[in-house]
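Tokens for Stage V sporulation protein AC. Go.
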Amino acid sequence: MSSANVDKKPQEAYQKLAKKHQPRPNVLKNCVKAFVVGGAICMLGQGLSQMYVKWFGFPPEKAGNPTVATLIFLSCLLTGLGVYDRIGQWAGAGTAVPVTGFANSIASAALEHRSEGFVLGVGGNMFKLAGSVIVFGTVAAFFIGIIHYFFFHWIK
């Protein structure tokens, strides 16, 4: 018997023991918290959109731009103050799905690497996550556009 097999048995036994004593997550409770917080962020966005239409005279189809910018600003501000991360710990995926979660990930990376300087630290590291999201989002949009073109133009 090789030494690699002998070393795996205690490790496997430990993994089984740890899994046995690990608390099980309450999936329903976590889903409800994510739904409530994600819904609250979306309600805030809808309220901001209505505010831009009513108070600032934006047409409804153009009110989305300042709404998204405001949500991104609030997310970055709350990330800098350490509030967004506490909300995210409690709500889980509810804070990650809206645009505010994406802004939080960029702001968190910028804050984490600020000691390395603005160019190499903040600028070089804040878009590590954003870069992959932008690339794969663009590629997905390209293929969806092609499918849409062929589906609606060749079927007629």
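The radius of gyration is 22 Å.
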